[in-house]
Amino acid sequence: MGLVGDWRINASPGLARAYNSAMVTPQTGARWRLIVSAPLSGPENMALDEAILEAVSAGRSSPTLRLYAWSPPCLSLGVAQPVGDVDLAALQAEGWDLVRRPTGGRAILHADELTYAVIAPIDDPHVAGDILASYHHLSQGLLAALSELGLSTQTAPGDTQDPGPAGHPVCFVNPSAYEITAGGRKLIGSAQVRRKRGVLQHGTLPLKGDLGRICRVLRLGDQQARREAADRVRERAATVENLLGSPTSWSVVADAFRVGFEQALGMLFERRQPSADERGRAEALIDERYGCEEWTFRV
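^ thats the sequence. predicted structure below, dont judge the formating
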Protein backbone atom coordinates (compact mmCIF):
# COMPACT_ATOMS: atom_id res chain seq x y z
CA MET A 1 0.00 0.00 0.00
CA GLY A 2 2.97 2.31 0.29
CA LEU A 3 3.97 4.71 3.04
CA VAL A 4 0.54 6.18 3.71
CA GLY A 5 -1.12 2.78 3.91
CA ASP A 6 1.38 1.55 6.48
CA TRP A 7 -0.44 3.46 9.23
CA ARG A 8 -3.48 1.12 9.17
CA ILE A 9 -3.59 -0.78 12.50
CA ASN A 10 -5.60 -3.79 13.69
CA ALA A 11 -6.57 -2.90 17.25
CA SER A 12 -8.39 -5.95 18.54
CA PRO A 13 -5.54 -7.75 20.39
CA GLY A 14 -4.46 -4.64 22.29
CA LEU A 15 -7.98 -3.73 23.29
CA ALA A 16 -8.53 -7.23 24.62
CA ARG A 17 -5.33 -6.96 26.72
CA ALA A 18 -6.50 -3.64 28.18
CA TYR A 19 -9.89 -4.91 29.20
CA ASN A 20 -8.58 -8.13 30.70
CA SER A 21 -5.95 -6.28 32.76
CA ALA A 22 -8.41 -3.89 34.46
CA MET A 23 -9.16 -4.90 38.06
CA VAL A 24 -12.47 -4.02 39.64
CA THR A 25 -12.26 -2.47 43.12
CA PRO A 26 -15.64 -0.77 43.71
CA GLN A 27 -16.16 1.84 46.41
CA THR A 28 -19.57 2.36 47.96
CA GLY A 29 -21.25 5.56 46.81
CA ALA A 30 -18.71 6.30 44.04
CA ARG A 31 -19.98 8.68 41.37
CA TRP A 32 -17.11 8.58 38.88
CA ARG A 33 -15.67 5.60 37.07
CA LEU A 34 -11.89 5.10 37.07
CA ILE A 35 -10.46 3.14 34.13
CA VAL A 36 -6.78 2.21 34.29
CA SER A 37 -5.87 0.82 30.88
CA ALA A 38 -2.99 -1.34 29.74
CA PRO A 39 -0.86 0.34 27.03
CA LEU A 40 -2.63 0.57 23.66
CA SER A 41 -1.78 1.82 20.19
CA GLY A 42 -2.63 5.37 19.14
CA PRO A 43 -5.80 4.45 17.20
CA GLU A 44 -6.95 2.19 20.03
CA ASN A 45 -6.51 4.91 22.64
CA MET A 46 -8.28 7.62 20.65
CA ALA A 47 -11.12 5.28 19.64
CA LEU A 48 -11.69 4.19 23.23
CA ASP A 49 -11.76 7.79 24.49
CA GLU A 50 -14.34 8.69 21.84
CA ALA A 51 -16.45 5.59 22.52
CA ILE A 52 -16.54 6.46 26.21
CA LEU A 53 -17.45 10.07 25.35
CA GLU A 54 -20.40 8.86 23.29
CA ALA A 55 -21.60 6.55 26.09
CA VAL A 56 -21.20 9.16 28.82
CA SER A 57 -22.93 11.80 26.69
CA ALA A 58 -25.89 9.47 26.18
CA GLY A 59 -26.13 8.65 29.88
CA ARG A 60 -25.21 4.99 29.36
CA SER A 61 -21.97 5.31 31.36
CA SER A 62 -20.80 7.23 34.40
CA PRO A 63 -18.48 10.24 34.18
CA THR A 64 -15.02 8.77 33.74
CA LEU A 65 -11.37 9.40 34.52
CA ARG A 66 -9.27 7.19 32.27
CA LEU A 67 -5.51 6.76 32.79
CA TYR A 68 -3.46 5.13 30.06
CA ALA A 69 -0.19 4.72 28.16
CA TRP A 70 0.80 4.05 24.55
CA SER A 71 2.52 1.12 22.84
CA PRO A 72 4.24 1.45 20.46
CA PRO A 73 5.24 5.13 20.78
CA CYS A 74 2.88 7.28 18.76
CA LEU A 75 2.96 10.75 17.24
CA SER A 76 -0.46 12.38 17.58
CA LEU A 77 -1.62 15.42 15.66
CA GLY A 78 -4.25 17.93 16.70
CA VAL A 79 -7.54 17.65 14.86
CA ALA A 80 -6.72 20.58 12.54
CA GLN A 81 -2.93 20.19 12.33
CA PRO A 82 -1.55 19.58 8.81
CA VAL A 83 -0.09 16.13 8.29
CA GLY A 84 2.51 17.97 6.21
CA ASP A 85 4.19 18.86 9.52
CA VAL A 86 5.29 15.20 9.74
CA ASP A 87 8.31 13.62 8.05
CA LEU A 88 6.58 10.34 7.28
CA ALA A 89 9.73 8.55 6.16
CA ALA A 90 11.51 9.48 9.40
CA LEU A 91 8.48 8.42 11.43
CA GLN A 92 8.40 5.04 9.73
CA ALA A 93 12.14 4.61 10.29
CA GLU A 94 11.63 5.20 14.02
CA GLY A 95 8.86 2.60 14.14
CA TRP A 96 6.40 5.06 15.69
CA ASP A 97 2.65 5.14 15.03
CA LEU A 98 0.68 8.12 13.77
CA VAL A 99 -2.83 9.17 14.83
CA ARG A 100 -5.01 12.26 14.66
CA ARG A 101 -6.66 13.27 17.94
CA PRO A 102 -10.28 14.43 18.22
CA THR A 103 -9.00 17.47 20.17
CA GLY A 104 -6.97 20.44 19.02
CA GLY A 105 -3.39 21.46 19.65
CA ARG A 106 -0.13 20.41 18.09
CA ALA A 107 2.07 17.36 17.73
CA ILE A 108 2.88 15.18 20.74
CA LEU A 109 5.13 12.13 20.87
CA HIS A 110 3.45 9.72 23.26
CA ALA A 111 6.20 7.64 24.87
CA ASP A 112 7.23 7.17 28.50
CA GLU A 113 4.22 9.08 29.75
CA LEU A 114 0.88 8.94 31.53
CA THR A 115 -2.13 10.23 29.63
CA TYR A 116 -5.35 11.17 31.39
CA ALA A 117 -8.85 11.62 29.98
CA VAL A 118 -11.70 13.32 31.84
CA ILE A 119 -15.01 12.46 30.17
CA ALA A 120 -18.24 13.93 31.50
CA PRO A 121 -21.74 15.03 30.48
CA ILE A 122 -21.92 18.64 29.39
CA ASP A 123 -23.89 19.57 32.52
CA ASP A 124 -21.49 17.98 35.00
CA PRO A 125 -20.20 20.61 37.47
CA HIS A 126 -16.58 19.57 36.86
CA VAL A 127 -16.80 20.83 33.27
CA ALA A 128 -19.15 23.75 33.95
CA GLY A 129 -18.71 27.07 32.19
CA ASP A 130 -16.68 27.63 29.06
CA ILE A 131 -13.54 25.75 28.05
CA LEU A 132 -11.18 28.00 30.03
CA ALA A 133 -13.32 27.80 33.16
CA SER A 134 -13.32 24.00 33.06
CA TYR A 135 -9.59 23.95 32.27
CA HIS A 136 -8.99 26.03 35.37
CA HIS A 137 -11.18 23.81 37.53
CA LEU A 138 -9.64 20.52 36.34
CA SER A 139 -6.13 21.93 36.67
CA GLN A 140 -6.64 21.86 40.43
CA GLY A 141 -6.81 18.08 40.28
CA LEU A 142 -3.66 17.96 38.16
CA LEU A 143 -1.78 20.24 40.57
CA ALA A 144 -2.83 18.08 43.51
CA ALA A 145 -1.70 14.91 41.70
CA LEU A 146 1.73 16.39 41.05
CA SER A 147 1.97 17.56 44.65
CA GLU A 148 1.40 13.92 45.68
CA LEU A 149 4.55 13.12 43.71
CA GLY A 150 6.53 15.81 45.53
CA LEU A 151 6.51 18.31 42.68
CA SER A 152 6.01 22.06 43.01
CA THR A 153 3.96 23.17 40.00
CA GLN A 154 1.85 26.08 38.79
CA THR A 155 -0.78 26.81 36.16
CA ALA A 156 -0.01 29.12 33.28
CA PRO A 157 -1.94 32.42 33.50
CA GLY A 158 -5.46 32.41 32.10
CA ASP A 159 -4.53 34.87 29.34
CA THR A 160 -1.63 32.75 28.02
CA GLN A 161 -1.98 32.31 24.27
CA ASP A 162 -0.63 29.27 22.43
CA PRO A 163 0.39 30.19 18.85
CA GLY A 164 -1.25 26.99 17.61
CA PRO A 165 -0.51 25.04 14.45
CA ALA A 166 0.65 28.17 12.62
CA GLY A 167 3.55 28.44 15.06
CA HIS A 168 5.92 25.72 16.26
CA PRO A 169 4.43 22.28 15.46
CA VAL A 170 5.41 20.76 18.85
CA CYS A 171 2.87 20.95 21.67
CA PHE A 172 5.39 21.12 24.51
CA VAL A 173 7.21 24.26 23.35
CA ASN A 174 4.67 26.69 24.85
CA PRO A 175 2.00 26.32 27.57
CA SER A 176 -1.58 27.44 26.99
CA ALA A 177 -3.92 28.98 29.54
CA TYR A 178 -4.07 26.97 32.79
CA GLU A 179 -1.71 24.26 31.56
CA ILE A 180 0.73 22.96 34.15
CA THR A 181 4.30 24.26 34.44
CA ALA A 182 7.21 23.70 36.79
CA GLY A 183 9.90 26.34 37.10
CA GLY A 184 8.66 27.94 33.89
CA ARG A 185 8.83 24.68 31.91
CA LYS A 186 5.72 23.00 30.52
CA LEU A 187 4.89 19.73 32.29
CA ILE A 188 1.31 18.77 31.33
CA GLY A 189 -0.28 19.67 28.01
CA SER A 190 -4.07 19.32 27.76
CA ALA A 191 -6.77 19.71 25.13
CA GLN A 192 -10.54 19.58 25.13
CA VAL A 193 -13.37 18.77 22.74
CA ARG A 194 -17.01 19.62 23.44
CA ARG A 195 -19.89 17.82 21.83
CA LYS A 196 -23.59 18.62 22.19
CA ARG A 197 -23.96 16.50 25.33
CA GLY A 198 -20.45 15.68 26.49
CA VAL A 199 -16.91 16.89 27.14
CA LEU A 200 -13.58 15.12 26.69
CA GLN A 201 -10.43 16.66 28.11
CA HIS A 202 -7.23 14.74 27.84
CA GLY A 203 -3.62 15.55 28.50
CA THR A 204 -0.18 14.05 28.80
CA LEU A 205 2.44 13.98 31.54
CA PRO A 206 5.93 12.92 30.33
CA LEU A 207 7.58 10.71 32.93
CA LYS A 208 11.06 10.36 31.43
CA GLY A 209 12.98 10.33 28.16
CA ASP A 210 14.25 12.89 25.67
CA LEU A 211 11.45 15.31 24.86
CA GLY A 212 13.48 16.66 21.95
CA ARG A 213 13.32 13.41 19.98
CA ILE A 214 9.96 14.41 18.51
CA CYS A 215 11.85 16.84 16.28
CA ARG A 216 13.42 13.92 14.43
CA VAL A 217 10.06 13.16 12.78
CA LEU A 218 8.80 16.68 12.02
CA ARG A 219 9.53 18.88 9.01
CA LEU A 220 11.56 21.60 10.68
CA GLY A 221 14.20 22.25 8.05
CA ASP A 222 17.69 20.81 7.78
CA GLN A 223 19.49 18.78 10.45
CA GLN A 224 20.84 21.90 12.13
CA ALA A 225 17.33 23.38 12.36
CA ARG A 226 16.05 20.12 13.86
CA ARG A 227 18.80 20.09 16.47
CA GLU A 228 18.03 23.68 17.44
CA ALA A 229 14.31 22.88 17.65
CA ALA A 230 15.03 19.85 19.85
CA ASP A 231 17.15 21.98 22.17
CA ARG A 232 14.32 24.50 22.42
CA VAL A 233 11.85 21.76 23.43
CA ARG A 234 14.27 20.48 26.10
CA GLU A 235 14.68 24.00 27.49
CA ARG A 236 10.96 24.77 27.62
CA ALA A 237 9.50 21.43 28.74
CA ALA A 238 10.25 18.94 31.49
CA THR A 239 9.62 15.36 32.54
CA VAL A 240 8.85 14.06 36.02
CA GLU A 241 12.29 12.46 36.15
CA ASN A 242 13.95 15.77 35.18
CA LEU A 243 12.29 17.49 38.11
CA LEU A 244 12.60 14.79 40.77
CA GLY A 245 16.06 13.61 39.78
CA SER A 246 15.00 9.96 39.88
CA PRO A 247 12.55 7.70 38.01
CA THR A 248 8.96 7.19 39.15
CA SER A 249 6.86 4.21 38.09
CA TRP A 250 3.76 4.64 35.96
CA SER A 251 1.58 2.97 38.60
CA VAL A 252 2.75 5.38 41.31
CA VAL A 253 1.90 8.33 39.07
CA ALA A 254 -1.50 6.84 38.19
CA ASP A 255 -2.36 6.49 41.87
CA ALA A 256 -1.26 10.09 42.48
CA PHE A 257 -3.77 11.19 39.82
CA ARG A 258 -6.53 9.27 41.58
CA VAL A 259 -5.65 10.83 44.94
CA GLY A 260 -5.21 14.31 43.47
CA PHE A 261 -8.61 14.32 41.76
CA GLU A 262 -10.27 12.93 44.87
CA GLN A 263 -8.71 15.48 47.20
CA ALA A 264 -8.85 18.61 45.04
CA LEU A 265 -12.11 18.01 43.17
CA GLY A 266 -14.03 15.76 45.54
CA MET A 267 -14.43 13.00 42.95
CA LEU A 268 -15.21 9.54 44.32
CA PHE A 269 -14.00 6.71 42.11
CA GLU A 270 -15.11 3.18 41.37
CA ARG A 271 -12.52 1.28 39.37
CA ARG A 272 -14.20 -0.54 36.50
CA GLN A 273 -13.70 -1.72 32.94
CA PRO A 274 -15.13 -0.16 29.78
CA SER A 275 -18.57 -1.57 29.02
CA ALA A 276 -19.18 -4.11 26.27
CA ASP A 277 -20.92 -1.39 24.25
CA GLU A 278 -17.91 0.92 24.62
CA ARG A 279 -15.54 -1.85 23.56
CA GLY A 280 -17.60 -2.61 20.49
CA ARG A 281 -17.95 1.03 19.55
CA ALA A 282 -14.18 1.54 19.95
CA GLU A 283 -13.53 -1.30 17.49
CA ALA A 284 -15.89 0.34 15.01
CA LEU A 285 -14.26 3.76 15.46
CA ILE A 286 -10.86 2.27 14.63
CA ASP A 287 -12.27 0.99 11.35
CA GLU A 288 -14.26 4.16 10.63
CA ARG A 289 -11.82 6.83 11.75
CA TYR A 290 -8.72 6.45 13.88
CA GLY A 291 -7.11 3.64 11.90
CA CYS A 292 -8.03 5.14 8.51
CA GLU A 293 -6.04 7.27 6.10
CA GLU A 294 -9.13 9.37 5.39
CA TRP A 295 -9.07 10.65 8.98
CA THR A 296 -5.34 10.75 9.69
CA PHE A 297 -4.46 12.50 6.42
CA ARG A 298 -7.57 14.68 6.19
CA VAL A 299 -5.67 17.97 6.70
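The radius of gyration is 18 Å.
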